[in-house]
Amino acid sequence: MARVSLEHVRKVFDSGQVAVADASLEIADGELVVLVGPSGCGKSTLLRMVAGLETITSGAIRIGAEIVNDVPPKLRDIAMVFQSYALYPHMTVAENLAFGLKLRGVSSGMIKERVNRAAAFLGLEKLLDRRPRQLSGGQRQRVALGRALVRQPQVFLLDEPLSNLDARLRLTMRTEIARLHRRLKATMIYVTHDQVEAMTLGQRIVVLNAGEIQQVDTPMRIYERPANLFVSTFLGSPAMNLFRGGWTSDPQPRLMANGLALDLAPEFARRAGSLAGGRELVVGLRPEHLQARTGASAADGQFSLQGVVEVIEQLGNEAIVTSRCGSQEVVSRMAPQGLPEPGSSLTLTYSPASLHYFRADTGERIASDDRAEKEGDRK
């Protein structure tokens, strides 16, 4: 296996559209990195440039120690799994697995050994004589993975490989891919628009938007400390609640937003004036950090919001409750027992430590406590 390095990679199409703008990224040998973002953000284009299926406008791509900008795809020692399984319908599973090796002149004995090993690894031994039309979606996806596996490449590239599967099969195949990576210890770059796939599969996540890398980090560090407003709302379901307004420190630090007053952490307010570039802020609060109380006041050390319940989505193991606080919708995640009735008053409490702060002008994150976040960065 090999590391992959992107150095100021840029892609501009003939139309002038900037698909990828100045992307720099280091992927370690044996690491599974997920590129995630909305449609059109440049993630698949970036993957195709690593594969050699798209030329780069500027910058450099290295696989191992070699710059591969001008190396054709077949000589890059990579294997790619596409969104469409791209299986040959007239060939059996065994023939599909072996086809790429035959093109490369691998001996028949080695082909048989690799095909049998991949089939055993992916549970395809009893399916080797079947054709793609006789397989389920999950089985076809395993054949596509097996075709990449028999190549024994330096790097595996996976471009939204599960998007054609139903929810249950996606869960099964996520497990298969995670198991595959643990056993192979292979370098993998995985593209998806699905945040659940990104959070559960990636050792690190690369969040992209409009052709630019927004943040690169481990899944939980991105979730707990999003770098900007886009990342804060893209990762997390339901999305983070955002409150935009002006803040005051008299008589106590508070954000005035859409007809409600949101109490802020005192340690943040002491330094917010210089960091926020003015008195307007955006404050974020995850739904799971809001707790419902039957009383009208918060517990010690907790702040509160008063609202009216509008919608309750019961999901079995939890409920998503949408309330109206002032003129703003606020979404909270609750246990399914003892839920309030729609139209009833609700007190939502939260800890000041759970608040996220962002600049209103640029959307960049503001650390509520520099020392705490730096200590977290070293963990």
Q: Tally the beta strands.
A: 21
Structural class: alpha+beta
Average pLDDT: 89
Q: Which strand order do you get reading across the main beta sheet?
A: 6-7-8-3-9-10
Determine the strand fraction and express it as a percent band.
Answer: 25-35%
Query: Whole-Å distance between the termini?
Result: 27 Å
Percentage of residues assigned to helices: 25-40%
Main sheet properties: 6 strands, mixed
Which assembly state applies to the chains in this document? single chain
Q: Helical element count?
A: 11
Shape field: elongated
Gyration radius from CA atoms, angstroms:
25 Å
Low-pLDDT sequence parts: 374-379
Structure description:
The chain has 379 residues and is α+β, with helices and mostly antiparallel strands. It is 27% helix and 32% strand. Strands 6-7-8-3-9-10 form a 6-stranded mixed sheet, sandwiched between helices. A hairpin with a 2-residue loop joins strand 17 (319-325) and strand 18. Helix 2 (93-103) runs parallel beside helix 4 (137-149) and helix 4 packs parallel to helix 5 (167-184). The longest helix is centred in the middle third of the chain and has 18 residues, at 167-184. The chain is elongated. The model is unreliable at 374-379 (pLDDT under 50).
Descriptors:
six-stranded antiparallel beta sheet; six-stranded mixed beta sheet; 379 residues; alpha+beta; elongated; disordered C terminus
Q: What topology does this entry show?
A:
Layout: E1 4-12, E2 18-27, E3 32-36, H1 43-51, E4 58-63, E5 66-67, E6 78-81, H2 93-103, H3 108-122, H4 137-149, E7 155-159, H5 167-184, E8 187-192, H6 195-201, E9 204-209, E10 212-217, H7 219-224, H8 229-234, E11 241-248, E12 254-257, E13 260-263, H9 266-269, H10 272-276, E14 280-285, E15 291-293, E16 303-314, E17 319-325, E18 328-334, E19 345-350, E20 356-359, E21 365-366, H11 370-378
Parallel strand pairs: 3-8, 3-9, 6-7, 7-8
Antiparallel strand pairs: 1-2, 1-4, 4-5, 9-10, 11-12, 11-14, 12-13, 14-20, 15-19, 16-17, 16-19, 17-18, 20-21
